[in-house]
Write a structure and sequence with these properties.
By secondary structure, the chain is α+β, with helices and mostly antiparallel strands. It is about 50% helix and about 10% strand. A hairpin with a 2-residue loop joins β7 and β8 (about 150-155).
């Protein structure tokens, strides 16, 4: 089993990896299928199901699907160009993807929200279809956005396809227990195993440069959030809070007026800055999802800016360790809020961040596994109930608290010797079972929880 660090950490567009990035990726894949098809295509249609339908407008799923059918991709998304293209599509009922003729697409009639229930494979399902000159369907595909920007066709999901189908890697651990056994047998750290696996696919210079770019995009996103005020879009009139909190913290520095727990405010500001950018539709990095994108970079920033001895050259080690944990969660449970609630998003992110921090602070593989388990265990049962379907309330603050929990979990693990009662594998399986038992109204449908108990208009 191999999930690349660059699958877990992908630059993309907000507000949601599963509801924005995923549908855009699915549309891009469908266009590739049309380019390879012998049929003469005249138009395209899209139908959204399950969580993609219930919270689609709040998560910009409609916008992402339309832009995807027009040829946009998350990793090269141009916000200004997108606005121009959307206006043209609305005026002409036509999309113009490269390598294909102009295709009829009326956003008012050719994009359908189906609220009857999810498709059988996953809560985030969509069907894309191509039509001939008479409007008859000549090609159709079902896609599932399974979290973190990962997309599978119906056939791929049924076949149990994972994120990677390439050649074998040197350390193919499928569980935390296997990971620890391989660390012990090889003398490698968790990051060492992960690095060896990555190097079986790309060279060391490319690996390091791509890791540096991931951190650069994370840091740039955070800096934009820390420097931007105002009101977030969507109608809830949520104020951006990261900038004023950060400004106040900077002003208080050196005044000997702050309590030790103020460090929590720094971490919250860092995390909230990222998720405010995400809520505004800016560029973020899935970590492992957009909705949880603030936790890992906030903990890295905390380590670099506030912990003596931290050096930027070890950020790659942090990311590799975090990705190893995220891959285990994805493979054995889920990183999708629509499948398992927010325990799968912020909970997974906190486990990843705790593991990464523990590693760069000198933790053993056993302590790293313990840190991840502590962080995930104390997110078990967390619901995904965004108000008005927007990735704002409670999502933005939740990332701040996830970062704080991650740091606490790493610290607790480092105080022990790595032995503990609940294995990470058991915690991940518990999360999977809890998600399966959780009512659909608490899994990113905005049909329960805060979404129905907080006035949102």
């Amino acid at each position: 089993m191999f999930v690349s660090v660059f699958d877990m950490f992908k630059p993309g567009v907000g507000p949601s990896s599963s509801h924005t990035m995923g549908p855009m990726v699915a549309a891009a894949r469908f266009l590739d299928a049309l380019r390879a098809s012998p049929f003469t295509v005249h138009g395209v249609k899209a139908t959204l199901y399950g969580s993609l339908a219930f919270t689609g407008v709040g998560h910009a799923t409609d916008r992402a699907t339309i832009l995807g059918l027009a040829g946009f991709r998350p990793d090269s998304y141009d916000h200004i160009a997108a606005g121009t293209v959307l206006a043209d599509i609305a005026a002409t009922q036509t999309v113009r993807p490269d390598g294909l003729p102009a295709l009829h697409f009326d956003p008012q009639t050719d994009l359908e929200f189906n609220y009857d229930g999810p498709l059988p494979g996953h809560a985030n399902g969509m069907i894309l279809a191509a039509t001939d000159a008479q409007g008859d369907i000549i090609l159709q595909e079902t896609y599932y956005s399974i979290g973190g920007g990962f997309v599978l066709t119906e056939a791929e999901l049924a076949a149990g396809k994972d994120a990677d189908d390439g050649p074998p890697v040197p350390y193919p651990f499928k569980s935390a227990a296997e990971m620890l056994e391989m660390c012990a047998a090889s003398g490698q750290s968790v990051a060492g195993l992960k690095r060896a696996n990555e190097l079986s696919r790309i060279g060391p210079a490319k690996l390091d440069s791509r890791l540096e770019r991931i951190w650069q995009v994370m840091r740039d996103c955070m800096d934009r959030g820390l420097g931007t005020g105002g009101i977030l879009p969507g109608g809830l009139k949520v104020k951006r809070r990261a900038k004023p909190i950060h400004d106040a913290l900077l002003a208080e520095r050196g005044m000997n007026l702050t309590a030790p727990h103020t460090i929590n405010d720094w971490m919250s500001a860092y995390a909230m800055a990222v998720n405010e950018e995400n809520a505004a539709g800016g560029q973020v990095v899935t970590a492992p999802t957009n909705g949880a994108a603030g936790v890992v970079p906030a903990v890295i920033r905390y380590w670099l800016d506030h912990v003596p001895g931290a050096v930027p050259s070890r950020v790659g080690e942090f990311l590799l360790t975090a990705a190893a944990i995220g891959g285990l969660v994805k493979h054995n449970a889920s990183i999708s809020g629509a499948e398992c609630g927010c325990q799968a998003e912020v909970g997974s992110a906190a486990a990843m961040a705790a593991a990464g921090l523990c590693a760069v602070l000198g933790g053993t593989p056993e302590q790293v596994e313990n840190a991840a388990e502590i962080a995930l265990e104390h997110h078990l049962g967390m619901t995904c109930d965004p108000v008005r379907g927007l990735v704002q309330v409670p999502c933005i603050e939740r990332n701040g608290l996830g970062a704080i929990k991650a740091v606490s979990a790493a610290s607790l693990a480092l105080r022990g010797d790595g032995t503990h009662l609940v294995p990470l594998d058991s915690c991940i399986e518990t999360m999977r079972q809890t998600g399966a038992d959780m009512s659909e109204k608490y899994k990113e449908t905005s049909l329960g929880g805060l979404a129905v108990n907080v006035p949102n208009c």
